[in-house]
Specification:
Layout: E1 4-7, H1 13-22, E2 27-30, H2 34-41, H3 52-57, E3 62-65, E4 76-79, H4 94-104, E5 112-115, H5 123-132, E6 144-147, E7 166-170, H6 173-183, E8 190-193, H7 196-227, H8 231-238, H9 262-271, H10 278-303, E9 313-317, H11 332-342, E10 346-350, E11 356-357, E12 362-363, H12 367-371, E13 376-379, H13 388-394, E14 397-400, E15 413-415
Parallel strand pairs: 1-2, 1-4, 2-3, 4-5, 5-6, 7-8, 9-10, 9-13, 13-14, 14-15
Antiparallel strand pairs: 6-7, 11-12
Helix pairs in contact: 4-5, 7-9, 7-10, 9-10, 10-11
């Protein structure tokens, strides 16, 4: 079996490494975080979707290191490093460019390099290729280069790495075929596109589609609130149409690495072509404003029972960005907690998937402890198996931002 190298052992890279190892491929996993590498060497996974038992089962096929030097022995190298935004909401490619520059030092002829890190169209050809060519090897001639967007939905069980179609775009036809052959080892279906740029834009379109539609239903939720209409009832009724409508749920905002980040990659790139992506930027604006609207709803809910925010005990139920996972990246709950804390609220939280929030100096407490005598129970993330009825019984007011209490008639419930 050919040796596969993975740079970046996070939410994208580690599942890839495990998948190749399970197919019998020797895998060289590289990460700059020494603590993470040591943890993985000990058979302890830091990714919820990768059980430690699964990691330990393929340990014989894994070489885990902080050095890129062993990658010279790999037939293919996949780059899966983070590509966040700067504080000014511009692309931060520093990790990707550093990984590419380091890889150039060990790159050898005939190797395949695939970028999976989400980025704007043109990155693979214009930014990554020149750095790799510092090796004196020419992309598309001496080595293969391709882009294949990651499609990871944490916590999902119905669509996995194996049965989710894999989009691949190569610098040349030979690059495309090499990348397709690589991914066919672990993926059932390969979707080939004509270029890295098409594959890069595909990823952004997928997430911008979701971002825009979430923003649309959130804006409808704001309007419905003023009109005294139940937005959840409206969405449920609209969903009965068998064509032309796709259901999206309103909520406190967007979280995770992709949805709050990816649209800004395209809007930034579009400005270089003299165009403003108004739908994209408006969607981002609306979704970023939702935590502020939710805090205003909390203030109003407390005011209705004669309480100020300052000094009130507020129990936040669920702080991860989506139900059933422990990922808090860009979670709207974090901004909601910060805003409420600035207003003087006494905040605690319960989340069975997130034991602590070090940046906010908070630790998860038991559900009953959280809601007992709470002035306000704030349902931000509706995790499965959490008894939300307990909050209705124990708290003076419940503010439901996820619509999970619709079938629970009670006078103390306020909804988004």
């Amino acid at each position: 079996m050919d040796v596969v190298g993975i740079i970046g052992l996070g939410y994208v890279g580690l599942p890839l490494a495990i998948a190749f190892a399970e197919q019998g491929c020797p895998v060289i996993g590289v990460d700059v975080d020494e603590e993470r590498v040591q943890m993985l060497r000990e058979g302890r996974s830091h990714i919820q979707d990768v059980a430690s038992e699964r990691l330990a089962a393929v340990a014989a096929n894994l070489t885990l290191t902080t050095s890129q030097k062993p990658l010279q022995d790999a037939s293919a190298v996949i780059i899966c490093v983070p590509t966040p935004l700067t504080r000014n909401r511009e692309p931060d490619l520093s990790a990707l460019l550093q990984a590419s520059a380091s890889l150039a030092q060990v790159l050898r002829p005939s190797q395949l390099v695939v970028v999976e890190s989400t980025t704007y169209p043109g990155t693979t050809r214009e930014r990554v290729a020149p750095l790799l060519e510092a090796s004196k090897l020419e992309a598309g001639v001496d080595f293969h280069l391709a882009f294949s967007p990651e499609r990871v939905d944490p916590g999902r069980r119905d669509f996995t790495l194996r049965n989710t179609p894999k989009v691949v775009g190569g610098l040349t036809e030979a690059c495309l075929q090499a990348a397709s052959a690589l991914y066919s080892i672990i993926c059932e279906e390969i979707v080939e596109v004509s270029s890295p740029e098409a594959a890069e834009l595909c990823k952004l379109l997928e997430n911008i589609f979701r971002s825009v539609n979430i923003a649309l239903v959130n804006e409808m939720a704001l309007l419905s609130d003023r009109m005294g209409i139940d937005i959840w009832e409206v969405v449920e009724a609209a969903s009965s149409k068998p064509y032309g409508f796709m259901s999206f749920q309103p909520g406190p905002g967007m979280g995770g690495h992709c949805l709050p980040v990816d649209p800004f990659y395209l809007s930034w790139r579009a400005r270089e072509f003299g165009m403003s992506c108004e739908f994209v930027e408006l969607a981002g604006k609306i979704n970023q404003q939702m935590p502020h609207h939710c805090v205003a709803k909390a203030q109003s809910a407390l005011n209705d029972v004669g309480l100020p925010v300052r000094g009130s005990k507020i129990a936040v139920l669920g702080v991860s960005y989506k139900a059933g996972v422990g990922d808090v990246r860009e979670s709207p709950a974090l901004e909601i907690i910060r805003l409420l804390a600035q207003l003087g609220a006494d905040i605690c939280y319960h989340d069975p998937y997130v034991p602590s929030l070090p940046a906010l100096s908070l630790h998860s407490v038991g559900l009953q402890e959280a809601v007992d005598r709470a002035d306000l129970a704030l349902i931000v993330t509706a995790h499965p198996h959490v008894d939300h009825e307990a909050a209705i019984v124990s708290a003076k007011v419940v503010l439901d931002l996820r619509g999970v209490t619709r079938q629970m008639p009670a006078r103390n419930i306020v909804r988004l």
